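Arylsulfatase
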Amino acid sequence: MKVKNFCRGVLAKIKGGAHKVHDKYRAKFPKKVPKLNDGKLHDRKFILKLAIASILMNLYIETFARITSGVFDGAMFLFKHPIIFLYNCLIIFATMCLALMFRKRGFAFLILCTVWGILGTVNGVILLKRMTPFTLYDLQNTKDGFSLLTTYYSKAQITLGAAIIGVALLIVVLYYINCYKWTNLNYKKELGIIVVVIATCFGGTFGLIETKALSTFFGNLNYAYRDYGFAYCFLNTSVNKGIRKPNHYSKKEIQSILENYTKNGTNTKLVQKNDAKKYPNIIILQLESFSYAQDYKNIKVSNDPTPNFTNLMKNYSTGWFKVPACGAGTANTEFEVLTGISSRFFGPGEYPYKGKLREQSLESLGYVLKSHGYDTHAMHDHRALFYNRNEVYASLGFDNFTSLEYMNNIVKTPTGWAKDKVMTDDIMNIIKRSDTRDLLHIISVQGHGAYPTERVFKDPYTTVTAKDEATKWKYEYYVNELHEMDEFTGDLLKKIEESGEPTVVLIYGDHIPALDIKESEYGTGDLYQTRYVIWDNIGLKKKDKDITSYEVTADILKNVGLGHQGVIFDYEQTADKNSKDYEKNLKALAYDMLYGKNYVFGGKNPYKRTKMRMGYKKIKIDGIISIGKKYYIKGQNFTEHSTVSLDGKVLKTVYLSPTLLGLSEKIDQKDVKKLRVSQIDSKDETILSTIGGNEEL
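Tokens:
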């Protein structure tokens, strides 16, 4: 409410200021009567203006989208694919025609141009920082995006951007005040024109899809935007969400898939066995933007940045790892690994973590292992709120989630990300203190962009040779962060080995880094591939093969003796991956579980969201003491994000140690007993969890 009132106040001041500027301007420069403002006489000229503007706008959008590969690539798109280019112009033109229904046509035209201009600019800017284009689903990440603003842009750039937005708003308000109204408008005729244009647009869409010039399936989001144009792809991703209902979806069809392509058939409900000790710990180690430096053909490194990973590839199962993300989209890779379901079944660019999984549980690796008595833990050295992990992990069967806000002794990279080594001791503490086997889902963050275009390290472990200075420094920063991530991995595996705990560790990069890499400059030429290794200390045989992120978990479960557990994993272990119906049947099972009638489980989802605890350590208040007029809270396992709170309000707090917090605000004596300790989000004051004096978290 405060934000809404603040925004209203700002807009009112802008409008008031615009009126003052307008009045002074008009006193010196009287308003001239426009030449074109009669609906009867000038309609055709205005429509022609809209058509020309649509072509120019599309040219701008496509040029900016390809700016990293060449300033003339937008024009080349026009000449190489004229029909697709003009089709995208038609989409923009259809929206521009809405201006015909307004008396202040000039203003409506300006707003529509501004909207498309902003969309195209945002897409271009995003492609400068990552390798996946802008979709409607990115708007779901707006809050996360603002939290990273200072990571990607300097304060000067942010200030300049805010100033430009302010000036633009002022211009828009001034133009609205100054804009002439059209006369003699025939709204029925204008509506008819709009209907004809939209109908032509729909007809063109169906025609191009039928002739295979367009596609509704985007196997690769980058290539789709490049081949089919921004306007079509953005609208497609905006309306195409969730998993589409299969053509022959029915109880009989789902039962047929289960009976013919799974070992357990329709006997799909997991039975609680509590026999975890028969099996190893399973650790999923997802390394942020991790890749193999030797796969880049556009650079040379003086030393191997990842010697531990190189050694692991020689001695353990490895291969190319097909992921759904490129340069960004971490959450979709981990979704595939944890569930066995391809994120490509969803709408292009969609994040299940941002939608369905916030409200509904889903069969996953966590639930499968819990049925055997495993404890299930998630850990991430970044914000709990990022990708809604603090909500989603309860839908995937995790008992606890330790995020950055529950960690101590955090060391940051030069660009502000936590170094992954902060998690090593916590991982080992979980393994050692557990009296059963553990599933640990570990998400790293150290390798995250942006990557500086100037020199950062004075004495790097490895240097880079590249075509230009900017490329050299970006890659040199990246590969030296890779080296530290590799050291973290090696140290962790060494400690697991020393613990004697039987363990299997899947290690992989969630996607390649956002370094503007071309297909010809990377590995096999597929930018949707990273590398993986499956380390173990239980004597598994080395089996090298390329695999997808949504099929790797089924392989691991089968290899450790937990085959045919869970419907999706059972299907992937039993069905022929080369059959023409393999993907179709897998998609049907996923639809039934998430959007259908749960025929798989007899009509009811058997998985309940877990009562997930934030942090694996119990945070506890031992007492509240006063020294002079100040209060101190004694306790256990406090972190730098522990804050004293009162009735849900965060108070000014000084973190003194893991056992002591100081209160910097004055409070009434009567409120002392109501003081609580809350863990707050690392970017704002969102409370993640709270405990009182007689509670433990």
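The radius of gyration is 29 Å.
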